[in-house]
Amino acid sequence: MDMRFQDRTAIITGAASGMGLLTSQEMAKEGAVVYMVDINEAPLHESAQAICSHGGRAVPCVCDVREYEQIRAVVGQCMGEQGRVDIVINFAGGCAARVWGLEDGSFTRLPLEVLDWGIQVNFRAPMLFARAVMEHMINQKRGVIINIGSIDGVTGGAVDYSAEKSGISEGMTKALARIGAPYGVRCCSVSPGPVLTRPAMSRMKTALGRAAEPIEIVKLVMYLCSDDAAFITGAHYLIDGGRALLNNA
Q: Which of 34, 69, 193, 247 is deepest in the core (most CB within 10 A)?
């Protein structure tokens, strides 16, 4: 097996489930020390323990990504224990109406607290993680930040979610890449189309006629984090099976 991330440290948000968990597992297999960030304490500890029981190195970090002091604590723990932060991957988030279980997710009737949750988790949190790690990465002359967007940020979907994902995958990613480039710090974004992390995704149309397997997204994210992608920064990768090509997407 490749050990592309031997002794590298990675902070991965949304790591208790879904693609955040899968990325944590795969990076640990390739030698990374993975700091797994999630607000859901029980599954987070269980997932980290499972990685460690298979010979990987994983540290569970219970964190509400809406709170900057908690973000700083995670980064401080990683720096204190490992002396560096090499990679940050911002998986935490989701369409606010779905996460809150709302039957009516219409923008004009969406409760303001739900809108605020989406802005804080999907947009503000990646910015705050970048703020917390950028100085460390600049000082060590190395680092990678990966922002996770969405096909909805390209084609449009729920107003709030589309705006949040478009903002991080384009403007924020490019701005961070400009700041980091003189110091060897890279920033890219990955926007998945439908992924088989829940049944509804299989019903979304793509030009290729299927949804992605989660590992397909994870492999792209890991490539961008690796030294194989050392000349890539400021780029937005759409991995959607051609969904954006469809007029009725």
A: 34
Closest-CA residue to 204 (of 243, 238, 237): 243
Yes or no: say if 74 and 11 are a contact pair by the CB < 8 Å rule.
Answer: yes
Which segments within the chain are labelled E, that is strand?
A: 9-13, 33-38, 57-62, 87-90, 143-148, 185-192, 236-239
Bridge partners of 148?
190
pTM above 0.85?
yes
Position 159, amino acid? V
Element (H, E) at 117: helix 112-118
CATH class of 9-245: alpha beta
Distance, in Å, from the CA atom of 51 to the CA atom of 59, rounded to the nearest integer, reads: 9
Among 35, 37, 22, 30, which Cα is nearest to 5's? Answer: 30
**Residues 201-242: tens digit of each pLDDT:** 889 999 999 999 999 999 999 999 999 999 999 999 999 999
Q: Which two tokens mark 28? A: 């640990």
The backbone torsions φ and ψ at residue 39, rounded to the nearest 5 degrees and listed phi first, read -90, -15
Joined tokens for residue 73: 């604590």
Per-domain residue ranges of the chain: 9-245
Length of the chain counted residue by residue: 249
Catalytic residue among 35, 68, 161, 223: 161
pLDDT tens digits along 93-134: 999 999 999 988 899 999 999 999 999 999 999 999 999 999
**Among this protein's residues, is 68 annotated catalytic?**
no
Coil, helix or strand at residue 50: helix
Per-residue exposure over 175-211, b if at least 16 CB sit within 10 Å of its own CB, e if not:
ebbeebeeeebbbbbbbbbbbebeeeeeebbbeeeeb
